Amino acid sequence: MATSHPLPEGFSELEVFGFGTVMMVEALLGFSLNMLTIVSFWKIRELRTPGNFLVFNLALSDCGICINAFIAAFSSFLRYWPYGSDGCQIHGFQGFLTALTSISSAAAVAWDRYHHYCTRSKLQWSSVISMGIFVWLFAAFWSAMPLLGWGEYDYEPLRTCCTLDYTKGDRNYISYLIPLALFNFVIPVFIMLTAYQSVDHKFKKTGQFRFNTSLPVKSLVICWGPYSLLCFYAAVENVTFISPKILMIPAVIAKTSPAVNAFIYALGNENYRGGIWQFLTGQKIEKAEVDNKTK
């Protein structure tokens, strides 16, 4: 006879199913769009440029976020976490690794676009490959720290997925959170903001607006801002008194970032979109050059 598992505290049957359904939709949509971005990069020769490699790297990390969301959704349908405490640690590490890489990769794309439009030099293959390796290793360092005792991974309020445990709000958590947020959110946002401001100034000077320079920064802040604010709020206030349903909302919003990024950096990019169309239909794009700069 199958064992009946109790509902997570603070959630009804419908709410658990609802959160699981939303995360499943986010996972499937984001994974499909980013896999299309990845495969098109490999299959279409014109897409394989240094700049587009950074978009490829962003899509790769976003696929990882979608896999993390899929596991969380599957567990939500089961109404419990079936992979034990070790599985929780792995899930938390994998989620943080891909999320931090995604944020830094978006900053790397902004840096590339700044060079393309505002300087005479373009980033070369050696530079973008080094940047790609660095963002993964840098994210791996910060993601591994909770496994070593600096910070801690534990169940989210729904108890069907795992992330950084922000409920304690102790000195260990605060000492980890501040540098984590500085190096993996504040600095990337600053890089994106200054880079796109310079690009926007260049567009206004030339009268040629190639893409919406404010959209990448806005999307990053909207997707990851609520989760960041929750983590900082937990450093000064006891969040255990907040409804578990409310605590889950920032995490669910953050999991929309893979699909949003795919629309902004691949499908929202005229030339990259042309490469995807060529991959899907076999119709060769007419533009002589395909890169990730022009929309």
Give a structural overview.
The protein is globular. 70% of the residues lie in helices and 2% in strands. α1 (13-43) runs antiparallel to α2, α1 crosses α9 (270-281) and α2 (50-78) runs antiparallel to α8. The protein has a two-stranded antiparallel sheet. With 295 residues, it is mainly alpha-helical. The chain has helices at 13-43, 50-78, 84-118, 125-144, 171-206, 215-236, 244-254, 257-267, 270-281; strands spanning 153-155, 162-164.
Poorly predicted regions are 288-295
**First and last CA, distance:** 57 Å
Helix- and strand-based class? mainly alpha
Q: What sequence of helices (H) and strands (E) makes up the elements?
A: HHHHEEHHHHH
* Total strand segments: 2
Q: Using the CA coordinates, give the radius of gyration.
A: 20 Å
Report the mean per-residue pLDDT as an integer: 91
DSSP summary: helix tally? 9
Specify the helix fraction band.
over 70%
Which sheet architecture does the biggest sheet show? Answer: 2 strands, antiparallel
Widest beta sheet: strand line-up: 1-2
Percentage of β-strand residues: under 5%
Shape: globular
Main location: membrane
Pfam families: 7tm_1
Membrane topology: Multi-pass membrane protein
Keywords: Chromophore, Disulfide bond, G-protein coupled receptor, Membrane, Photoreceptor protein, Receptor, Retinal protein, Sensory transduction, Transducer, Transmembrane, Transmembrane helix, Vision
